[in-house]
Design brief:
260 residues, Rossmann fold, two-stranded antiparallel sheet, 5 strands, 10% strand
């Protein structure tokens, strides 16, 4: 029901019952559509257009002023790491590159509400990390972001509120900390003690009658190792034919009440 809900909010399909308002207006009305940025689950672009031409078309459709259009296009190409590939046809883009240009087109008109359907589809770990950073940055700038995703770890990291749908119905809804029940029996302690301190702490816990199930050294996650390896490769001057590193959100994005 996730994608169906989004299509109703966009006015692409109609609910069988009930009423829906988006930004104070019925879905699909021009006054609300111009304030919404949308990234569908599967982006479909004109394959013969370049990335730059696609953003120019999106900007014109969204009535971005001529005086701002080129500046926004260049800023977003820089953000998503596609400046070097901007004049290549989208039909030659990888799936991850198409996802990046899709994110850029969703932001070109500085929308108040940004709807992202499976935003990390087709992205490598670096792209996934960047999308999370962009979402956090947009939230800090006052944007409202609606994310549909089956990657629950990502949702937990970036969202303030969640709604769990099953069978076409909302089964649970609320702030993330309310949805996730606290487990008072399990604790994670992060530290870097030397061996003597660790041994002393372990013995103290046992003296207090605590049943220690396991104690093991931590390690980097595979995502952390991947990002570290790519960073080192770039520092050595190695390049890729795909998307570049990308950058921060452009200054023109901002305004509104933040929710994720």
């Amino acid at each position: 029901g996730k994608s169906t809900t989004i299509q109703i909010l966009l006015g692409l399909i109609f609910p069988t019952s009930g009423e829906v308002e988006v930004l104070g207006a019925p879905p699909g009305k021009p006054e609300s559509k111009t304030r919404i940025g949308y990234l569908p689950e599967d982006s479909v672009f004109y394959p013969f257009l370049s990335g730059r031409e696609m953003l120019d078309l999106s900007a014109r459709l969204c009535r971005v002023p001529d005086s701002d259009r080129n500046q926004r296009i260049e800023a977003l190409l820089q953000m998503v790491g596609l400046r070097e590939a901007a004049d290549r046809e989208i039909g030659d883009y990888s799936k991850g590159m198409q996802r990046r240009i899709g994110i850029a087109q969703a932001l070109i008109h500085d929308p108040d509400l940004i709807i992202l359907d499976e935003p990390t589809n087709g992205l490598d770990p670096l792209g996934v990390r960047q999308v999370k950073d962009w979402i956090e940055g947009l939230k800090e700038r006052g944007k409202t972001i609606l994310i549909s995703s089956h990657l629950l770890a990502d949702v937990e990291q970036v969202c303030d509120r969640v709604s769990i749908l099953y069978g076409g119905k909302v089964q649970a809804e609320g702030a993330v900390e309310e949805i996730l029940e606290r487990d008072d029996r399990t604790f994670w302690i992060t530290s870097r003690p030397d061996a003597a301190v660790l041994e002393s702490a372990e013995q103290r816990l046992r003296d207090e009658g605590l049943d220690i199930i396991s104690m093991q050294p931590g390690s980097k996650s595979l995502e952390e190792k991947f990002l570290e390896t790519v960073k080192e490769a770039r520092e050595r001057g190695e390049t890729t034919a795909g998307a570049e590193a990308g950058g921060a959100l452009p200054p023109f994005l901002g305004g509104g009440d933040n929710h994720t």
